[in-house]
Amino acid sequence: MDIYQIKKLSNEERETLLVGESISVDIQTYHIPCDQAELTIVKDELSKASVQRSFIEEEFKTVKESFKERLSPIQEMISESIATLKTGTKTVNGKVYLLPDFENKMMHSIDQAGNVLNSRPMKPEERQFRIEHISKAV
To answer: What pTM was estimated for this model as a whole?
Structure first.
């Protein structure tokens, strides 16, 4: 029998022939050709799916932004905590006072709580004792 003539048989005849003549039956994935009408349907489905995906992606973007806004302060706090644990110091933004020590020729940076943050030797222009240092202290 011509193998290409099997396609022209009725469904019952084709089923009988295939079951009777085949050696085994396997389950496989395969491709079959599509006619122009089927391709048009697939194009329409693709168009609809693309529009739906666009709406869903836009909604996802909005939801993602709201979650990002909620997550940002927590992420920042975690980063600061990790940096604090790494260095053993905490980052603070506040007033720092620069106090001269003319006897030892040093300049000290002191925070509002009285912690000495930094000490360094005086620069030559800072070593000159001026009256304005006294007036600021009084």
So the answer is: 0.46
